[in-house]
Amino acid sequence: MSKRAAAAVLAGVMIVGLSACSSTGGSSDGKKPGGKLVLGFAQVGAESGWRTANTKSVQEAAKKAGVTLKFSDAQQKQENQIKAIRSFIQQKVDVIAFSPVVESGWDTVLKEAKNAHIPVILTDRAIDSEDTSLYATFLGSDFVEEGKKAGDWLVKEYQGKPGEVNIVQLEGTTGSAPANDRKSGFADVIKGDPKFKVVASQTGDFTRAKGKEVMQAFLKAQPEIDVLYAHNDDMALGAIQAIEESGKKPGTDIRIVSVDGVKDAFTAMSQGKINFDVECNPLLGDQLMELAKKVKNGEAVERRIKTVEGTFTPEQATAALPTRQY
Ligand code: AHR
């Protein structure tokens, strides 16, 4: 947390009937101190290393850009995010940004924001509403592409090798854009070869604890697992614990492909425990502040801004580890 944010928290975190809602400066009625832009940001939660890095990026960028940030942590519950957005509307913030826990069910509250003339920015995750007038822009990754990259790696890895490849999949939060898209992108690529079989697929809710728990169940139910595809690194890291406790070697007995590219996963890769990682960049803060200023000023912004990301082999991850920011 920034010094200024910490000071604001010490001075008394503003509680507005939400699970966790704090403000880096600003007053509880949303008045703009010294004409500063007030941004209400409804975060998903703190479910993963990726999310923690994303929150830090947004908080630091707000401080740097002189934006008053009203921050809410929804603890992975859509109802908490809806409450947070309603509270931001009541406080008459200048701009609302949020990373939707799930894709559907946003029209009502976003219409309320629209009626209050408060522009909305989707960050990190998309919604499935047909009414695209409900938000100004969407800044974030292409999750379908990430799933495809994971599938491409697998296809290459097993090219020319005979026999079936039994895959277990740890899905992200049910109904979330990254879970839906990473699953479909991956499925699209592997469907071209019948030797790839997804023998079990279940949600691990993007958390380490759930990833471990579900992997333990997979290991009990599936006699032959060749590959684990995890929709994020935290679930992969939890699954690694389960695999090791079962007496198997992650990365060797069960090959692992994951998504995110967080430091802990790179460490696991340097130890040979994860075989391939698809990057999902959480450092969206600076772009978000720039966009918030533009939409507040009525300037034109692109409807869709995609994050630039790569992929990592164990060798590349090991080399990147010393300077990895998250
Ligand atoms: O929406 C991005 C995803 O959400 C990240 O892959 C995951 O780690 C997070 O919880």
Automatic annotation (TrEMBL):
Keyword Metal-binding: no
Pfam families associated with the record: Peripla_BP_4
Similarity-based family: Belongs to the bacterial solute-binding protein 2 family.
Subcellular localization, as worded in the UniProt entry: Cell envelope
Keyword tags: Signal
The protein's name: ABC transporter substrate-binding protein
Recorded superkingdom: Bacteria
InterPro entries per UniProt: Peripla_BP_I, SBP_2_dom
Range of residues in the leader sequence: 1-22
PANTHER family: D-ALLOSE-BINDING PERIPLASMIC PROTEIN-RELATED, GALACTOFURANOSE-BINDING PROTEIN YTFQ
Main subcellular location: other
Domain Periplasmic binding protein: 45-299
